[in-house]
Design a protein that fits this description.
Length: about 240
């Protein structure tokens, strides 16, 4: 199934679900994991705007799976028994070239041999395809997606209950989150996945982790932003110019 196929199926589902949320539970935290996230989150935002209940701090695109893959696929270099012990920012979007792992920003730091860098980036970006091929087209990355969804949802719940110091990567509407305007200027897009501090009311602050990235990462970011703009516009257009029924 292509991304276009996914869009045709999921765009309408997300639109209708969010209409219900807007009417019956407008203060809910909305965590969108339905692909293509780069488009379905803007769809949700437009629906909430139309209903007059859009709170950017409460709308999240779940991109945690990209981080889980980055942590796992680098274990041979980090030597960590627990992959999540290494924190690797993954920014941008949640599909293919819009996924940008910032290995240079990892803590603790580690080195990737130059001859393995491109393949590692590609594996983080297209890890889902690897699973589909392994299942011979009969399924996708359901288990890892469930784990990633749980990990992010648990963080949102803990933050909503008052736990502090929780920072997670997530795809948010930058102009509506503190610190987001700086990233809008740096990337040229209003929806972007970055590290976000979570609090009782949702997204408290978006952090700009782009300063000091490598030339390789800058090239990845350029490709990301081009693709991301089109994905975002496609989602917005789906609501503003709905397809005929």
């Amino acid at each position: 199934m292509t991304r276009d196929d996914l869009f045709k199926i999921n765009a309408g589902i997300v639109r209708d679900l969010v209409k219900g949320i807007a009417e019956f539970s407008p203060q809910a935290f909305i965590l969108i994991i339905s692909n293509p996230v780069n488009s379905t989150v803007p769809i949700a935002a437009e629906v909430l705007k139309a209903a007059g209940v859009f709170d950017p701090k409460r709308l999240f695109g779940v991109t945690t799976l990209d981080v889980v893959r980055a942590e796992t696929f680098t274990q041979e270099f980090t030597r960590q028994k627990n992959p999540s012990a290494t924190k690797i920012p993954v920014v941008g979007g949640h599909s293919g070239e819009t996924i940008v792992p910032l290995f240079s920003k990892a803590t603790p730091a580690f080195q990737i041999p130059s001859d393995k860098y491109d393949a590692l980036v590609n594996r983080v970006q297209f890890g889902g395809d690897e699973v589909v091929k392994a299942k011979d087209g009969a399924g996708s990355a359901t288990l890892s997606m469930a784990f990633a969804g749980f990990r992010f949802a648990e963080s949102v719940i803990k933050a909503s209950q008052g736990q502090t110091g929780i920072v997670e990567p997530t795809f948010v509407y930058l102009p509506g989150v503190a610190g987001g305007d700086e990233l809008v200027k740096a990337t040229g897009v209003e929806f972007f996945s970055t590290l976000v501090a979570l609090g009782a009311n949702g997204a408290e602050e978006a952090f700009n982790v782009l300063d000091g990235i490598t030339d390789q990462e800058k090239k990845l970011l350029e490709a990301c932003n081009k693709g991301l703009k089109g994905n975002i516009e496609k989602g917005i257009d789906f609501i503003k110019n709905p397809p005929p029924k």
